[in-house]
What does this fold into?
Amino acid sequence: MTAATDWEHDVHRRLLEGDQGALGECYDQYSSFVFGLARRVIGDRRAAEDVTQDVFLHLWERADGFDPVRGGLRTWLGTIAHRRAVDHVRREEARRRRTEKVGNQASVAPDVEEMAVAIVTAERVRAALDELPPEQRAAIQLAYFGGKTYREVAVELEIPEGTAKSRMRLGLARIADVLEREGVGQWA
Amino acid sequence: MGVNPDTRELLGAYALDAVDGDEAAAVAELIAEDEDAERELHRLRGAAAWVGATEALAPPRDLRTQLLQRATPVPEEVRIYRMAMARHEDLLDAVPAEALDRPTANGLTVGDLVVHLAAMESAAAETVGFEQTVTDETEVVARTRHYLDAVGDDPLGRGRRAWRDAVDALDAWAVAGGEQGGLPWNGFTVSRRTLLATRAFETWTHDDDIRDALGRERLVPHPVELGVMSDIAVNILPFCLDAAGTTPAAAARLVLTGDGGGDWLVSLDGDEHPEPAVTITMDVVDYCRVVAERIAPDECAATLDGDAALGRTVLACASALATL
It folds into this structure.
């Protein structure tokens, strides 16, 4: 885990002081990430826009919940964005429709406004995902993009629940290993 | 409390939001107690976030404008109030049902304390027009008892909803530009800033009571919050002394150290005293906990320069207005 950058410490302080400009900077930096993630999980553009707004409003109102000492803003925003997107999916009971998309939907190219380093890193992560044992990749994608619990993943993949849990843990750890091994800065 | 060894195996699924509510609570308990597990979770979440980043996609241009229109700046006291209430909500998410009967520092159980906060929050909200149907009682203990009767054995359900309704009402009133002052609260007439900061202060105090009962680490609020809360906690000193039956004809200087601290010259009797009779120097968090009656003055390292006897009197009386 890499600590946050000076910029993240700075925007964190300014958010706590109620500086709207800091929110704009965070949005410019991470909106493509949040929106793309929400869109992929939910599958609906309008709902993904709502989630994106909610995530950044949460940052505005709960900046104290983000602790730059413990990690980067991407991880924090990603955790909130994903949870809200999954909540939306589960609430709408639209899981089945999206499941059909998982696995055959082409990846969306990263936004050109995203930082160059983010684009490069995302490419590395994509490669790391491709290099995962297929059973680990499937477990992660069904859970993360399909909004499924590990129990549902176990049923879908016809594996024991314990195996589903292990595949998620091992697969994510392997991606973290790759990022650390390649010295990807600010990956967390 | 024991942690199921299988819980650690859930970390990957938890990082992917792929566990159910009970399992999420078990993981929250694990990472609160086990630094290695917490570190692993951060690492896995970081990896998960980067998996999400492979799907980056530019949102529509007008979304930024819409966001900034909604993210209106709010006064400092509203911000710190929101922070404290949001942290309380996070804590409630992590309270296991089996912990509700555990005793806390003031003799109430964890569950009772959750309800007590609902009773107090609704009392604060009533001062700005919020209507609730549980009780008209204003005395703290009696009001809490009415709320306990109304909530029954469902503090995390009914109790929490009653608390949330009151928080939403206070927040909406404050954001809408509610009165700046003249608000009746606990026998005083207070400003909006004092009302909201007092609620944040009490919530922090009781949240730490709950954390103690759960075996979790106490939490130090952000310096922005501490700055506002310590200011209130210093400026109520004359009222504390008055409530304790003493009004020294002198001023005291308080130097509260650490982030969120500051330097105050406080008249103890309301008259002007250009020089302090005593200077009290101590940690800002310790001072707040003394005022909240959670630690005794002799339990913390305070330096008293000048009239040390007066300094001891001031600190001994600092918690005179603490309730429960």
Notes: Residues 20-42 of chain A form the longest helix (23 residues). Chain A touches chain B through 80 residues (CB under 8 Å).
